[in-house]
Structure formats: C-alpha cells, structure tokens
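Customer escalation, tier 2.

The customer says the design service returned an amino acid string that "doesn't look like it belongs to this structure." They asked us to rerun it and document both sides in this ticket. The original structure tokens are below, unchanged.
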C-alpha cells in the first residue's frame, strides 16, 4: 500500500487560477506559509485564454456597481482595499506593456502569459509552494482544539505512480473557479465543499451567455448569422453599448453577453439599432431629400444590408416596393420608434454546461 505523507501549513489554496494565485501571494506576503493545490497539469489555463490571449486585466473605471452580488457591500469593501490602480501598479512593476481599448479596458500588448508569469513570480518571491496534478479526495474539519482546522487528502498523480498526501492547514481557500469551459479546469467542487460545511448557497445561473429564441426570431437570426453591428441594449434598468452578433442559434456579442447577466426568463430586452442617432429626424430628412429612394436603400447607409432586408419584412412589408415619399410621416415615425426600441423576448440563454453534482 502506498505510504501517506503528512504536512502542515498555514493556508491551503485549492485551485491555481487567477483568484487562487492572487490570494496565495497576498497571504504569503503576510508571513503565512501557503500551499496551492492544482488539479490540472498546468496552472492558470483560463488566464492564458482570457481577452483573446491578451487578457483584459482591469479597467480604468471600476466600482462596486460593476459587480453582481447578493451582498453589494462585500464588493465595496473589497474594492476599497485593492483598486484597479493597485493592479495597474503591479503590472507596471513587472514591466508589462499594455494598451487601453474602448470603455477604458486594459489589455496586455504582448500576451496574457505576461499576467500569468507576473502572478507566478509574485508567488515565487513570497515562497508560495504550488503543486499540480492534485486529485482531491476529501476535505475534513479537524477538532476545535487543534491549531490546524482542516485536513485535505489527495493523490498527487504526476507520472506513473501517485503519492497520497494528507495536508493540514489553519485556513482553507477554495478558488476552484466555476463551470464555464470545463476543459480549462473549472469545476463545481466549490459548491460541493460549501454544502459539506453547511454554508448557504445562493441560486446560481449562467452569466455572460448568448440568447436563444423559439419564435420567428430563431430563423431570422440563422439567416443573419455572422452579421454584427454596434447597438445599445437594455434590460431591467441596465444598459450596454457594444457589439451585437447574430448567430445560427440566436444573438451574441459583448452587448448581449453583458446584458444576459440582468435577464431572467420571461423578460424582454430592448435593442436600439441606431444608438446616438435621432432616427425619426434622420428618416424625415431622407424623405425630404431623397423622396424617390426606398427606405431599405436609405437605411442601408447606416445598418448592414442583410439586417435592413429582414427589418423590412418585419416592420414595413406593405411598403417594400414604395419610395419614401409614399410613406406617411406617422408611419415613418412608427418605424423609427421600432428601430430605436426593438423589443425581443429570448426563450433561454445558451448554457454550455450544466452543474453536475448540484
Ligand atoms: C474565453 C474566456 C475569456 C475571458 N476573458 C477575460 C478577460 O479578458 N478578462 C477577465 O477579467 N476575465 C476574462 N474571463 C473570465 C476569467 O477568465 C475568469 O473569471 C477567471 O479566470 C476566473 O478565475 P478563477 O481563479 O476564479 O477560476 P479558474 O481560472 O477557473 O481557476 C480555477 C482553478 O481551479 C482548478 N481546480 C478546479 N477543481 C479543482 C480541484 N478539485 N482541486 C484543485 N484544483 C481545482 C482548475 O483547474 C483551475 O486551474 C474570460 C473567460 C473565458 C472563458
């Protein structure tokens, strides 16, 4: 039977993603002995994929309102202790080149690997120990009299044989990520451990996900698949001005992924297809200046042609062959209103993975 090795540290961090690595060196800087246990063969896989490989590591404008939380005060407290400027300072100290993109987003100029290398260097400098290939067997509470409060049992299966380890710690941090893109390591073990320790779980749902439709929007999206445009999308009082992308299954793109966090089944979303333009006034002007032109032709100056074709079928099918001069002013205003406030009712979000154990 394989021998079991025992060891004790101050802090064990489960998961060597962005959260786990950051937490590990922060604790170690306080003089604590920290051990990070990672299931995968490599650390920080999701960081490497982030921001299309360039990692959008922070934003010039960050406040508690940007975070969705059952306890908004937690975000306020966390952000007051570590701001975007602290992270930017760290990035600068490591000589990482970065650029500002729209909405104050900061991305690495070179590669997301720079951010991972920075976190690992900070861990190394603070003497954090990191073990990969860790198959977690159990987490248990030790008796209240002990200095160490938790025992983590695992097999470290690096190579042919596996070493059985029993690791005791005073503080246990579970930073095992969430369920999105399971190939990058995220798992639901955090929820399982929380249940084991009778910690209350809030209801969970997928965030940053595309929308699907079961009505006539579904074939429309399929026909427009690949078409994208800048929009303003609103739902339940939140609004995002970003890109929308039609896909075979529905709508996606940054604007939709963001608003999906505020959407609940049964809700409508409202899309302004021409943000920043007074569409009513614009159409009236076109009617006066280009009265012989068809509305579809005029709108194609502002919107993708394929989308205008679909909008025509939806909003002014009776006028498909008419010149703009033949539309009444009232009818044009109705159409303008629709383009600025296109109301859609998604049937569901496109969830890639369902929780396994809960
Ligand atoms: C394609 C994509 C692009 C993104 N782009 C950005 C971006 O540009 N900017 C941004 O801020 N965010 C971005 N995100 C989101 C961001 O990547 C995640 O929010 C962040 O990586 C989550 O970090 P985490 O440490 O909580 O979890 P993870 O990165 O998932 O890390 C969890 C770690 O725990 C390990 N683990 C799981 N189970 C166990 C176990 N039982 N025992 C031990 N270890 C375990 C996993 O292997 C993993 O290494 C992106 C996400 C995706 C999918």
């Amino acid at each position: 039977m394989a021998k079991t090795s025992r060891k004790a540290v101050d802090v064990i961090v489960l998961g060597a993603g962005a959260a786990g690595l950051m937490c590990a060196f922060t604790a170690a800087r306080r003089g604590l002995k920290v051990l990070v246990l990672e299931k995968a063969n490599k650390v920080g896989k999701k960081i490497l994929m982030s921001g299309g490989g360039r990692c959008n590591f922070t934003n010039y404008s960050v406040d508690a309102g940007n975070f969705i939380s059952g306890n908004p005060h937690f975000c306020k407290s966390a952000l007051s202790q570590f701001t975007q400027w602290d992270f930017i300072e760290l990035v600068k100290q490591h000589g990482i080149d970065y650029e500002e993109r729209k909405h104050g987003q900061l991305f690495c100029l070179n590669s997301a690997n720079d951010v991972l290398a920075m976190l690992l260097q900070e861990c190394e400098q603070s003497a954090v120990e990191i073990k990969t290939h860790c198959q977690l067997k159990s987490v248990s509470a030790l008796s209240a009299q002990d200095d160490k409060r938790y025992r983590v049992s695992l097999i470290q299966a690096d190579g042919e044989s596996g070493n059985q380890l029993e690791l005791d710690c005073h503080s246990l941090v579970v930073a095992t990520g969430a369920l999105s893109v399971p190939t990058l390591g995220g798992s639901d073990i955090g929820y399982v451990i929380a249940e084991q320790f009778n910690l209350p779980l809030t209801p969970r749902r997928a965030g940053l996900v595309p929308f699907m439709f079961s009505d006539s929007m579904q074939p429309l999206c399929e026909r427009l698949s690949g078409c994208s445009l800048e929009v303003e999308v609103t739902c339940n009082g939140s609004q995002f001005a970003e890109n929308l992308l039609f896909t075979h299954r529905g709508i996606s793109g940054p604007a939709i992924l963001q608003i999906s966090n505020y959407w609940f089944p049964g809700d409508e979303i409202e899309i302004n297809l021409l943000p920043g333009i007074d569409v009513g006034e614009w159409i009236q002007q076109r009617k006066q200046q280009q009265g012989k032109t068809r509305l579809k032709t005029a709108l194609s100056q502002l919107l993708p042609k394929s989308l205008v074709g679909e909008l025509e079928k939806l909003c002014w099918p009776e006028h498909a062959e008419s010149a703009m001069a033949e539309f009444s002013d009232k009818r044009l205003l109705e159409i303008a209103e629709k383009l600025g406030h296109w109301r859609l009712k998604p049937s569901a979000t496109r969830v890639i993975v369902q929780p396994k154990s809960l």
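Tier 2 assessment: The sequence is consistent with the input. The pocket of flavin-adenine dinucleotide is lined by residues 14-20, 37-40, 45-47, 49-51, 55-56, 134, 136, 175-177, 180-181, 185-187, 189 (CB under 6 Å). The chain is about 30% helix and 25% strand. Sent an explanation to the customer and offered a walkthrough call.
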